[in-house]
Amino acid sequence: MNTTEVPLEKPLKYVLYARKSMESEEALTVLLNVKCKHLLPEGCEGTGYPQHQELREEILKLWKQNPNIDFAWRDITKKI
Q1: pTM for this one?
Q2: Around Cβ 55, how many Cβ atoms within 10 Å?
Q3: Which of 14, 27, 41, 72 stands the most exposed, by the fewest C-beta atoms within 10 Å?
Q4: What is the pLDDT of residues 47-56, one digit of tens each?
Q5: Which residue has the higher pLDDT, 68 or 47?
Q6: Is 43 left (phi over 0), alpha (psi -120 to 50) or beta?
Q7: How far apart are CA 43 and CA 33, in angstroms?
Q8: DSSP readout, the chain?
């Protein structure tokens, strides 16, 4: 195999991991509204993208259950 040939499974794994990571990070920003509300200007609340609303709701439920970012991250990344 020369240097221009890359096995398909490596880029595919990377793309899937990157997507999973971006989806999780975007959805986890909902916690900024909870934990950092006092740092945001009045009336400024991130609502996120429509495709992340269900995931954001799930994160809020997890946060109420256990306010620990590691707990929420592990659970959410399993579901994406």
Answers
A1: 0.64
A2: 19
A3: 41
A4: 888 888 888 8
A5: 68
A6: left
A7: 11
A8: --TT---THHHHHHHHHHHHHHHHHHHHTHHHHHHSGGGSPTT------GGGHHHHHHHHHHHHH---HHHHHHHHHHH-
65 is written with which tokens?
A: 């259950």
What sign does the CA torsion over 49, 33, 20, 61 have? Answer: negative
Q: How far apart are CA 27 and CA 76, in angstroms?
A: 9
- Tokens, residue 35: 């934990």
Structure tokens at 7: 């096995």
Mean pLDDT of the chain: 78
